[in-house]
Amino acid sequence: MRVARRTPRGRERRARRTPRALLVVLGCLPGTLAVLALALCTRGIEDAVARRSDRVGAARPVAAHRAARPPVVPRSAWLDRATARTQPPPRYDDEVVAVFLHHTDSPNGYRCADAPRIIRHLYAGQTGDRSWDDIGYNFLVDRCGTIYEGRAGGIDRAVTGAHTKGFNHRTAGIAALGTFTSGVPVPRAMTDAIAALAAWKLGLADVDPRGRARLVSTSGLSRYKAGATATLPVLAGHNEGFSTTCPGAALTARLPEIRERAALLQGREPAPEPRKRAEAPRKPTTAVHGTPAAVHRKTA
């Protein structure tokens, strides 16, 4: 006689349900996997883009006040093989937060077509007589407003120059070709080009040309001892950081105008006009014939 084995009801129900549920799951599996894969893929792409954006944003924040880059003639236009010297690789800073303006202390009556020859002569003097590794200025501007690349390393990069003793880091040196002592006229084309160049270079770091910058001196031969922090104009003359008459009294006098022009090119608001001082009420003056009558009275 056979004895039938009893199966618990719960296990029997599960046994009955399992094939049916399994069929449902198996039937839906490809679609579910597709949707799941699509969702995971989309989420992964978004996360990857977000991480990349965070890294890019942290490394190079977008400047709010950028100016267009003016045309710059490359150094290959003035440096020939006969003059070029072997030099070490360029050195770089993280950004440019200030600009020093210079004059080259050379004759003013040159033809603009001769500017490359003049720059080549300056290069030969600085790398020869002074034993520098390259021309010190990052850029040079001639009387016609043409901008030339100076020191090697890349126009768009923060190349460490050799233009202002103690303050070559995080700055750019712009040299005006000529001598601009007191009373010497400064060409408008030159100042406009300097303003455009400073606006673009400082705009890469969103720096207002009319502001002030905190710079750390690296040499006691400057106006500040080594390691001291100096607060200088963002667009400054060479004489702000070093004891010199450069860039000359005439060009120094044009600096406020150059700063304002550069700020406007960055899209900044114009500087407010200085308030006129209220004139004090004038005291009434006594006319010649207004002498008190008592003075004219005849005495008996």
Automatic annotation (TrEMBL):
Residues 70-220 form the Peptidoglycan recognition protein family domain. GO terms for biological process: peptidoglycan catabolic process. Gene3D superfamilies: Peptidoglycan recognition protein-like (3.40.80.10). Residues 270-282 have a biased composition (Basic and acidic residues). Residues 264-300 are annotated as: Disordered. GO terms for molecular function: N-acetylmuramoyl-L-alanine amidase activity; zinc ion binding. This is Peptidoglycan recognition protein. It comes from Streptomyces actinomycinicus.
